[in-house]
Amino acid sequence: MKPRSRYPLTALLALALIALLLITSACGSSSDDTAAAGDTSQVTTDSTSDDADATESATDTADSDSADSAETSTTTDAASLFNDGALTADAVTVDCTLENGSETTCFQLEVASLVSTVDTDGPYCPETTSDVGGIWVWDGDEPGLYALDSEFWDMMTAQGYEFVDADGNITITDPGGSGADSGGTANSCLEATADGSFHLQVLIPTEPELLDEPVSLLEISQVGLALDGVTIFGDAPSVADRGGLPALDACGGHIDPSGYYHWHFGAESIQTNLDEAGAAVTCGIEQDVEALLGFSYDGFGIYGPEEDRSIPSDLDECSGHVSDTEEFGEIYHYHYTYDSPNLPACRVGAAATGKLTSPDNSAAALPDGDGPPGR
User: Fold this and answer.
1) How many Å apart are CA 203 and CA 78, to the nearest integer?
2) How many Å is the Cα radius of gyration of the chain?
3) Cα–Cα distances in Å, from 130 out to 148, 153, 239, 256?
4) Which terminus of the chain has fewer CB atoms gathered within 10 Å of its CB, N or C?
């Protein structure tokens, strides 16, 4: 007789059914988990897509801000580089016409006839040969840069000029006064009367445009505007040709017969010129032989005579070249020189018509080329 099983058949069948149900449940659960994992993956993908959109949006915003900044920079950088107090009104951008006929925009800059950024009190003409005045670039016999001291006046006397009387007094004439009107400036040291009651207005192109040929900057030509707010003119009138000597101060500026102060030198490097010439005077303006110091009327910058501690070897006839600048990147710009005077001899770009005017003094003389004595 066979032994009897411990479990009845029905029980075994029930156990098998339960096992089958458990297996089915486990498979379903795995499928649900997989589906759930798939959903999580989809959420992650959607989140990544949202992040990408956000990043793209942020990038677009940054690019837009950069573009706006670049546009603002293009229209404000040059004007913002002027020294504190140099401009008497906010710089504005205006429509203007260049000398080549181009219709464009210009920075309109307003400055005082006597700026607050520079000492305009001289000295210019010394009263006697015992005094030391300003300076002069003599263009007659024994040409050069001189201090207006006893040695200079002795040289003038030896060359036949009569600036000095028998007592050592120097004849000083105001070129804007009655003596000048009557032609009495010969054999005179010229010193004009300052007038700080009016303003000068300058137009400088926002985007420089090259001319086909450079424009020579002749005697008393309008050259540009220094960052200190003082206008820059070409060589002062020749004493040898005119007889009167329009004395400059030790930094190379003086008063125009109309009363405004202006430069005939780049002041920030003039001390080297003075020292090399043996002129025993000192310019009180801080010297910087590499910095941006002003703008030509064509919109190109004017820098000190050196670049990377040396004089550039590739300067053109206008004392300019293309190289990298801190302010504008790689661009054409001018350099002052160590000649006397030390200004560019010509201009390569187009200046605006009416580049230098006075909004409140129609009588102000603003020569742009060979002008009368005392300029």
Assistant:
1) 12
2) 39
3) 10, 10, 22, 26
4) N
User: How far is the C-alpha of 141 from the C-alpha of 228, rounded, in Å?
Assistant: 35
Structure tokens at 285: 């303006």
pTM of the predicted protein model: 0.78
Query: Distance (Å, rounded) from C-alpha 358 to C-alpha 188?
Result: 29
Which pLDDT tens digit goes with each residue over 325-352?
999 999 999 999 999 999 999 999 999 9
Q: Distance of alpha carbon 186 from its chain centroid, rounded?
A: 38
Mean pLDDT of the chain: 83
Cα(216)–Cα(333) distance, rounded to whole angstroms? 16
Q: Regarding beta strands 261-263 and 222-226, do their DSSP bridges make them parallel or antiparallel, or are they unpaired?
A: unpaired
Burial class (CB in 10 A: 0-12, 13-18, 19+), 270: buried
Helix or strand or coil: residue 313?
coil
CB atoms within 10 A of CB 269: 26
Cβ-proximal residues to 212 (8 Å cutoff; 6+ apart), any chain: none
The whole-angstrom separation of Cα 67 and Cα 74 is 10
Query: What b-and-e string marks burial along 146-169, b requiring 16 or more CB atoms within 10 Å of the CB?
Result: bbbbbebbeebeeeebebbeeeee
Q: Which tens digit of pLDDT belongs to each residue from 15-53? A: 444 444 444 444 444 444 433 333 333 333 343 344 444
Placement of tokens 């920075």 in the chain: 107
H or E, element range at 154 = helix 150-158
The type of residue at 169 is N
CA dihedral (349, 262, 119, 122) positive or negative = positive
Strand pairing category for 189-190 and 172-173: parallel
Select from 357, 295, 190 the least CA-distant residue to 367.
357
* Cβ atoms of 180 and 193 closer than 8 Å: no
Residue 336: which of 363, 305, 310 has the closest Cα?
A: 305
User: H-type helices in 182-325, by residue range?
Assistant: 239-242, 270-277
Structure-token pair, residue 153? 């006046």
Which of 73, 47, 371, 52 shows the shortest CA–CA distance to 237? 371
